[in-house]
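Retro notes (design track)

What went well: tokenization of the new backbones is finally stable.
What didn't: we kept losing track of which sequence belonged to which structure.
Fix going forward: every design gets posted as structure first, then sequence, in one message. First example under the new rule, 85 residues:
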């Protein structure tokens, strides 16, 4: 799921914090303290803040996911399903 986009960084951080807190995950504390690169993973979920051009939140999300997957591939990481990313 991609968030609604067009949010300020503060509103996006607060929204993710609320979701992580409701999930009851220890990653809520990591996010609260300032997650590296504004990204945390919880199981198969990735929570991140990304920037995009006005009106292009979906395109920005797709570009962010491509960059994230490329980073995993560059380091030989595998997905949670055991297949290469």
């Amino acid at each position: 799921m991609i968030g609604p986009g067009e949010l300020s960084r503060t509103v996006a951080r607060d929204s993710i914090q609320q979701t992580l807190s409701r999930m009851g995950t220890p990653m809520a504390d990591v996010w609260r303290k300032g997650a590296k690169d504004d990204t945390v993973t919880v199981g198969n979920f990735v929570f991140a803040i990304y920037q995009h051009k006005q009106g292009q939140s979906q395109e920005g999300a797709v570009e962010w996911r491509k960059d994230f997957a490329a980073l995993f591939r560059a380091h030989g990481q595998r997905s949670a399903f055991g297949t290469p990313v």
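Added context from the reviewer: The mean pLDDT is 83.
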